[in-house]
Amino acid sequence: MDLFDVDDRTARLFVLGDVLAILAFVLVGELSHGIDPLARPLYVAETALPFVVGWAFAGSALGAYSVRARESLRVGLPRAFVAWLAADAVAQALRALPFFHGDAALTFYLVAAAFGGALLLGWRALATTVLAR
C-alpha cells in the first residue's frame, strides 16, 4: 500500500472533522478579537476560507487523507502537521491578496500553526484512536 493511497472512507471520516477543527480555530480567534460570529457571519467565513482552501490543497497533496494516515498515529499526525503548516502558509498568502481581509503576518502564521494545529491534531488523534479499537 502506497503512503498516499486514499479511499473514500478515509476522506469521509476526516474531512468533516478537519473542517470543523479549522472552523473552531477561526471562531475562537474571532471571539478573542471581539468579532461576533452571529452578527458578522460573512466576515468569519472570509477569515476561514483561506485556511479551508489551504487545507484542501495541502491535506490532499501531502497525504493527510491516506489510508495509512487514518490507521496510524505515527503516520497520520506528522503528515497532518506538515500539511497544516503548508495550509497555514497558503492561507497567509491568500490573506495577502486584496480579496480577503487581514494580511500575511509571521506572528499570525505562528499562532495559527500552534493553535489551529493543536485543534486539528487533537481531533485526528482522537478519531484515529477510536477507529483503531
Extract low-pLDDT stretches: none
Strand content: under 5%
Count every helix, treating DSSP H or I runs of 4 or more residues as helices. Answer: 5
Number of domains: 1
Radius of gyration: 15 Å
Look at the structure and give the mean pLDDT. Answer: 91
The description of the largest β-sheet is: none
The number of distinct β-strands equals 0
**N-to-C span:** 21 Å
Order of helices and strands: HHHHH
Structural class, from helix and strand content?
A: mainly alpha
Principal-axis shape equals globular
**Percent helix among the residues?**
over 70%
Outline of this structure?
The chain is mostly helical and 133 residues long.
Description:
There is one protein chain. This protein has 5 helices and no strands. By secondary structure, the chain is mainly alpha-helical. It has one domain. The model has no long low-confidence stretch (mean pLDDT 91). It comes from Halospeciosus flavus. Keywords: Membrane, Transmembrane, Transmembrane helix. This is DUF3054 domain-containing protein.
Write the SSE topology.
Layout: H1 8-32, H2 41-61, H3 67-71, H4 73-95, H5 106-132
Helix pairs in contact: 1-2, 1-5, 2-4, 4-5
InterPro entries: DUF3054
Keywords: Membrane, Transmembrane, Transmembrane helix
Pfam family, one: DUF3054
